[in-house]
From TrEMBL:
GO terms for molecular function: DNA binding; DNA strand exchange activity. Residues 5-169 form the Resolvase/invertase-type recombinase catalytic domain. It holds the Pfam family Recombinase. Keywords: DNA recombination, DNA-binding. PROSITE patterns: RECOMBINASES_3. This is Resolvase/invertase-type recombinase catalytic domain-containing protein. The gene is ybcK.
Amino acid sequence: MERPRLYSYVRFSSERQSKGTSIERQKSNIDNMVKKIAQEHDLEIFEEYQDLGVSAFKGKNATEGALADFIQHVETGKIPFGSYLLIESLDRFSRANPMVAVNMFTSLLLKGIVVITGIDNQIYRETKVNNDTLQQLMYSVMLFSRANDESETKSHRTIASALNKIKRHKARQLGDPVVAIKELGMDKWWTDSSSGFVKPHPVYYPIAQKMIELKQRGYSNRLILAYLKENHPAPTEGRSRGKWNIQHASRIIEPAIYGQKVINVNGESYTLDDYYPAIVTKDEYERLKFQIGNKSFAPLKEANPEIPLLSGIGILYCKH
């Protein structure tokens, strides 16, 4: 007879946490708990699901993250009835509206999933209703409600802080240091805001400049990607996590390269000029956009004897 499977779930909500101790702490705790729970309940250790940099406040992890994958795998039968899910605490599962969170949580229980929270050693499963199960369900509602309240408070503070920085940016004098606004999204990979101010990244800003130069010379996204992979280490922050991909080349042409940042707060859009260190002027950006969008202009897709080959930061010419 097969032993029940034990799955685990880890989530942290921000890029800052990914660089800090949140993921390491959770993973260390979960790894230790997995071994302990598997031994206590005679379970077979299976897959770990991770939502890295995904918020549970609006339930995003349950609609498009790894938790969504877990729920889908339960619904399709890939994860069998009677399997166990280990999470550090219920707020890792959801910080959404308590009614939404409880509905999502209990639907898993009704599909035969046993949920264990490591921080308080609670075991949740579908069972006959009695005083103990009612108390446990009320306890879970209280935890979901508290997690949602905490996130609501944090969200209000985050928005207030961002709006204050937006106001300060619009009032700043040209040439004043640019205060980084990290509350509502990351800055561009070719900038450095570790000091609290937005500056050109000492390594990646020159690479972005070279990419723009190659775009101006007519190089395709594929050739630019090949150049990046051959010559430069990829940024370690952000979703690419140390790997160049085609989006680095295809998405480099955007208003950010002439300094503009757009922030959306509660449905309202704020345009901040001179936020990023400019790589080109606005006129150069418009010309480059026109060049790329001009159907009569064919980008270079591969090197040939008449086309400069990329090598290092410079350009070599191949002649026969």
